[in-house]
Amino acid sequence: METSERLSGIKFIGFTMLGLAAFFAPVTVNGDRSVPIDLIAVWVSSNFEFLASVFALAIVLVGSLKPFISRTWNSDVFETIFSVLKPLGFIAGLVIFLDMGPKWLMTPDIGQFIFYDLIVYLAFLIPLGGIFLTFVTKYGFLEFFGTLFEKIMRPLWKVPGRSSVNALASRVASPVVIYLLTDEEYRDQKYTGREAAIIATGFVTVEAPFIIVVARTAGIMDHFYLFFFVSMLVTFAVTLITARIWPINRITNEYYNAHRSTSASRESEGELAPDVNGSLVGRAWRSAVNTASYSASLPSNLWRQFKSAMAMTFDVLPLVLSIGLIGLIVAEYTAIFDYLGYALYPVTFILGIPEALLAAKASMLGIAEIILPSVVIAESTVVTKFIVASVSITTVLFFSTTIPAILSTRIPLSIFEMVVIWFERLVLSLIIVTPIAYLLL
User: Fold this and answer.
1) Of 157, 221, 351, 412, which one has the greatest count of Cβ atoms within 10 A?
2) Which domain holds residue 13?
């Protein structure tokens, strides 16, 4: 092995282990067992509460003004709606911070929770997560496992082998970034419309930092590793089914602008050129080492990833505050989600989920924002919390981020189709997760 290859191999292994340790290494501090980036975010937000709150409020303010400064607020219907909601989120956050709100807003379970326990925490977790994601996205980790899995993607999930990287990256990178990558490859005729739809609705869920947020909000950090891997496996298992049923199986299986294209065959456009030299593991190793060798310097990658994470923080925090607060208020003071929950209640009842109606109601909240279901069931039994938190991840689609992101691409999916796919994924996820929860908890 040449010296340069050896050094690149050390870089791949060392940085990957460092990044994975930040997200998965078990650490106990003052009796609180969690993972490093979660504990750091909790420590900062709790020990410097005033400064942390001001910092979070400043991020919400900048994020709420950003669409109007960049003049993108009226680019489409969803952008207009979100651009209006963001300033409302800032106003609500300011009122809560100044302790000037009405009693129904200032309760520990609504206003104080959404701002102090969630927004302030997220203001540190997302940038911190972005920094450590550098080590698992820039130095070969995705390429290594992407190569290992590429042979099974077509027979199992009806997508090309190259999509294995998209599927894995969805756990360690912003879903918006993965949608942009999928859209670009769809327009470059690497995926058909149906393949792009399968990837967008079947693999691209929230990244590791948000999975930590869901687990902490639901109160299941003691089961974080089980929760993470179960949610990942169930996401893929459900996609096995949804890729084969309506509406995905009726989406065009043609390439983007295929009627205008003079490109060659499906094989030459839709699949990566196979590397047949050596074993599968050997090819995976070469792919990872090659990525590590050509990656930019560590300071450059860290800075680029941090800027990306901060941009995401500016976009996400105002929406989580506004949509999350609206969802909590509607769930607490109206019967709307109770009525919606009745549509799912037969499923949760038959499956024997504890507090079946509450689980149904909480699960239906997931279409609005991924964190809301965990808020509603935070005081429930551990089995209920685990099930509801898991399906909020495995359903993939929700209106605060993923649905508008898909609509901004050329991937051929309508709002109606995505809502149908979301409900299919919800029911299938409940059917798969519930026995796992009873067996392992």
Assistant:
1) 157
2) 3-440
